[in-house]
Amino acid sequence: MNSEIINPLQDLAGYNLRRASNIIILPLEESLRDINISIVSATLLILIEANPGVTQSQLGREVAIKSSNMTPLVLDLLGRELIERERNDGRSYGLFIAGKGKTKLKKVWRCILESEARQSNQFSRAEWKQLVCLLQKVWK
Of the CATH numbers 3.90.70.10, 3.40.50.720, 1.10.10.10, 3.40.50.920, which one belongs to the domain with range 13-114? Predict the structure, then answer.
C-alpha cells in the first residue's frame, strides 16, 4: 500500500489559502495571546492608531464586522483603557488610542513583525510582495 495519501483538494485555491492561513495565523494568535489581546482587537487598535477619530461603524466596514459584533469589541477596548472615545457630533464618537493602548500597540507590532519575518524567510522579498498583492486581489 502506498504511504502517501491522494489529496484531490491540493490544487484548489481555497484549500491552499486555508492551509497557508493556519500556518501564518496560529503562531501569531499564540504570541498575541501571550500579551492578552486577540488578532481582531489588535487589528482594531492598529486601525484606530492609523486613523485617529475613526468611528466604530467605519472600523466595522473596514474589517467586515457587523455593528452588533463591533460593539462588544469596542467596549472591551474601552474597558481595558486601550482606547478612548470623543463625541464627533450629536450621534457618533471618534475613537483614539489611550496611553495603555500605545504601550500595548508596541507589543502588538513586535509580535506581528516577528511573525511576518518568520513566515517570509522562505521567500524572496519580491515573492513575498507578490504573495501579499495576490492575497489582496482575493479580498479587495
Answer: 1.10.10.10
Residues 6+ apart with CB under 8 A from 42: 32, 108, 111, 112
pLDDT in tens, 64-90: 999 999 999 999 999 999 999 999 887
- The 8-class DSSP code of residue 54 comes to B
26 CB-contact burial (10 Å; exposed 0-12 / middle 13-18 / buried 19+): exposed
The 3-state DSSP class for residue 36 equals coil
Predicted TM-score (pTM) of this structure: 0.89
Angle, helices 13-34/99-120, rounded to nearest 10 degrees: 140
Say if residue 123's pLDDT is above 90.
yes
Helix axis angle for 56-63 and 39-50, nearest 10°, is 120
Q: H or E segment at 29? A: helix 13-34
Please give the pLDDT value at position 1.
Answer: 63
